[in-house]
Design a protein that fits this description.
The chain is α/β, with parallel strands linked by helices and 215 residues long. It has a single domain, classed as Nucleotidyltransferase, domain 5, CATH 3.30.420. Helix content is 46%, strand content 14%. Strand 2 and strand 3 form a beta hairpin. The mean pLDDT is 95.
Amino acid sequence: MILKLTRPLVFLDFETTGLDTENDRIVELAFVRLLPDGSRESLVQRVNPGIELSKGATKVTGIHTMDATGLFWGPPLRKCADKLLEFLGDSDIAGFNQLGFDMPLWEVECRRHGIPFDPNGRHQVDVKVIFNVLETGWDRFLMGPRNLTAAVRHYCGRELQGAHGAEADTQATVDVLLAQLQRYPDLPRDVPGLSRWCTQNLREQEAQSQQAGGA
């Protein structure tokens, strides 16, 4: 495998009640664990958020409040915490925009429900940061926004099936990262190196955005 792993790398994706990382809640999650031998293991969990979904979230995911808060959807997050923490183990973390959205929301949810998740010591790889930084010629008007659907089309040469379903999105993110590593030979091939690369480039992007906003 082109990516060198010394421990599992868990890709994550959440479907949520909205886009506010402080106040919105998880409705469905998927963890896909990429192992050093290249094999994958997945865990999918529906979660009762305890609050209404925004109209925007329902439009994107197709999930309605009555479904997500009903008896047959899933338990509150705290009731499936042990299973989730066991699956995560001491793994590193990856995702598509997880630095900007998924991990901040996950950490707030863990505090809200008393889930003892420890982010310390975990390297993080953000596939969207790689997409944003290295595809400098991307034309939003011709090619659309830099979302996961566009990334799958661009890097993998196919359409994303089941978009905005947590498991489909997570599996696709694994495929995109592996395709990025093949496309960009200068990217680090190990998770700690990729983590440092993503963190540094994200900070530079944020600094440039702030400078542009203040100009």
